[in-house]
Write a structure and sequence with these properties.
2 domains, 469 residues, transport, Growth Hormone, Chain: A, MFS_dom, 2 strands, mainly alpha, two-stranded antiparallel ribbon
Length: 469
């Protein structure tokens, strides 16, 4: 009953009566629609702050990729040390994937927790910039570690706000908009940071680590902007709690490491696909700028543009492809298509001199498609009470894989060059392909639930609900 009342208060767009507010004399008067937490006008304002909450984090995450040439030159680094900047981001999230939801639910609360993790993102980026300014690589690594503590947990908080304010049919659209804004942050970073570095260089009259430090410090302004969004969002959520008498949002994550021993073979194969696939995407983008300059003779501006196309395509494609997968089902087939297309993209980049825009556009579509089809499959093979553990473990080993492969990719590039690195990425995708083929046969032998059509899955869920009743 309480859940139904909360949903009515938050989602009833057609409700013609605004929540009353009382003046100093105690007289109730209607509240303006844009100020009323139960009205769509107010929730659109809240949604705006939700979308920008993670903008700074995603903008600054790929600062090293956008400034790869400058970081290598100004800090006098080899590629192996450069890729440690990505590894240090991933290390804290090997553990925080299990603890982030607990800290938000039980320790800080969603509002305070969001502000705290936003502060970690801000301080981490400032420390990262200071490390460049003072030519101290260890300080840059420390900054990325602190930045990583806040980055992933902030995404959990963002999703919790979305569920709390937009339960029901709107939540998938909200998730899509948040993902699009995140990709927009990555895209803007890829295409603007080189220009910012050039302007700072012209003002200072020279290149060097101080120029790089100032550039990264300017980038931290996006994190400060996201921190302001967290503060405003916390105020609006607290106000809605007071007006509508609703509870503070919870992440819904229940982590029990003892559940790991009960994971099925199908789930472990999903984990392998996840790790083997993503380690061929993010480390490649982190090293992509110099690759396009050296192999295809692109200018730095052209290289940054083609390197960002994966994020540019992902922004509008993720909601569309998510809708397509929801309507058709057949998740295994979609994942197989995404993996094969990604393998084809890497092979084109490795063994041909075709225009790389073709391969990178294919990579952008396949990356978006895999995310839409792979992650929901966890819910098909895991009981609801184990979902928190399953997703936490999946994110944990993904971050572990990204940390290790980032360092390995840097070492391979220093010693063997880009061709060998592309062959290595192709091998990772082949591992994902083998896992998806194995998952197809395991699923077939166990009834084929992962590859059901949307209609068949709806009938199965309806039948299961009837049996449980």
């Amino acid at each position: 009953m309480a859940e139904r009342e909360e949903r009515r208060n938050l989602l009833d767009e057609d409700n013609s009566l605004s929540s009353p507010v009382r003046d100093d004399s105690g007289t109730a008067r209607p509240m303006a629609a844009i100020c009323d937490p139960s009205r769509i006008h107010h929730r659109i304002v809240v949604l705006t702050f939700m979308c920008f909450l993670g903008f700074g984090s995603y903008f600054c995450y790929d600062n090293p990729a956008a400034l790869q040439t400058q970081v290598l030159q100004d800090m006098n680094l080899n590629t192996s040390k450069f890729m440690q900047l990505y590894a240090w981001y991933s290390w804290p999230n090997v553990v925080l994937c299990f603890l982030g939801g607990f800290l938000l639910d039980r320790v800080f609360g969603i509002r305070l927790g969001t502000v705290i993790f936003s502060l970690f993102v801000c301080f981490g980026q400032v420390i990262f910039a200071a490390g460049a300014f003072f030519n101290a690589f260890w300080l840059m690594a420390l900054g990325r570690f602190v930045f990583g503590i806040g980055g992933e947990s902030l995404a959990v908080a963002q999703n919790t706000y979305a569920v709390n304010w937009f339960k029901g049919k709107e939540v998938n659209l909200v998730f899509g908009l948040q993902l699009s804004m995140a990709r927009l942050g990555s895209t803007v970073n890829m295409n603007i940071m080189g220009w910012v570095y050039g302007r700072i260089r012209d003002l200072m009259g020279h290149t060097g680590h101080t120029t790089l430090g100032v550039t990264l410090l300017i980038a931290s302004s996006t994190c400060i902007f996201s921190l302001l969004c967290a503060l405003v969002l916390g105020y609006l959520d607290k106000r809605a709690e007071r007006i509508l008498n609703k509870e503070q949002g919870k992440t819904g994550e229940v982590i029990k490491l003892t559940d790991v021993k009960d994971f099925s073979l199908s789930l472990w194969l999903i984990f392998i696909i996840c790790v083997a696939y993503y380690v061929a995407i993010f480390p490649f983008i982190g090293l992509g700028q110099v690759f396009f300059i050296e192999k295809f003779n692109f200018s730095p501006t052209q290289a940054r543009a083609v390197n960002s196309i994966v994020y540019i395509i992902s922004a509008p494609a993720s909601p569309v492809l998510g809708f397509l997968v929801d309507k058709t089902g057949r998740n295994l087939i979609w994942v197989l298509c995404a993996v094969v297309t990604t393998l084809a993209s890497h092979m084109m980049l490795a063994f041909t001199f075709w225009n790389p825009w073709i391969a990178m556009c294919l990579l952008g579509v396949s990356y978006s498609l895999l995310a839409c089809a792979l992650w929901p499959m966890v819910a098909f093979v895991v009981p609801e009470h184990q979902l928190g553990t399953a997703y936490g473990f999946m994110q944990s080993i993904q971050n572990l894989g990204l940390a290790l492969i980032s360092m390995a990719a840097g070492a391979i590039l220093d010693n063997r060059g880009y061709l060998f690195l592309e062959v290595f990425f192709c091998a990772c995708i082949c591992l994902a392909l083998i896992a998806i083929v194995m998952l197809y046969f395991v699923n077939y032998l166990r009834g084929g639930e992962l590859n059901l059509s949307a209609t068949a899955r709806a009938k199965l869920q309806k039948s299961s609900s009837s049996d449980s009743e």
